[in-house]
Amino acid sequence: MDDVELTHRECVRLLRSPERGRRGIVAIDGLKPVDRVCLLLDAGDVLIPTGPDSGLVRAAALRPVSLEFTDRGKDGQLRWTVRGIGLARPMTGLDVPHPVPRSTVLAAAPDAFRNGVRVVVARYRGNRSAIPSPRVG
C-alpha cells in the first residue's frame, strides 16, 4: 500500500479538522523534540500555549521549529502524518483567537494562553495512507 502525498493546503485542512486543538511533536532548533498541545490557526500557523511557564518562549524565540502531527483511526492504524517547518516567535494576546476554539486537548488547561509561542509555518508536507484497492479474482 503506497502513501498519497498531501499538499500544504490539504495538510492545513486535515490539521484543523475535526477540531483545531491537537497534540504534536515540536522540535526547536537543536533541542530534544517534545509532545505539546497545539492550536492550529486558519492559515496554518500554530500556537503552542505554555501557561505560566515561559521557558519554552525564551528557548524558541526567533528559532526554526519543526512540527509533526499524526492521526490514527479507531483501529490504531496510521491515517496520516503532517510535518511542518517554521519560525517561532513569542505569542501575543493578539495571536489568541477570541473565543478560544473548544477543544478536548485545550480544555485541560484553562490558563494555557498566558504565555506561549506562535510558529509562523513556512510549509507543511504530509502523507495519507492509501486505501488498499479491493482484490479482483
From TrEMBL:
InterPro entries: Split_barrel_FMN-bd (IPR012349). It comes from the Bacteria. This is Pyridoxamine 5'-phosphate oxidase.
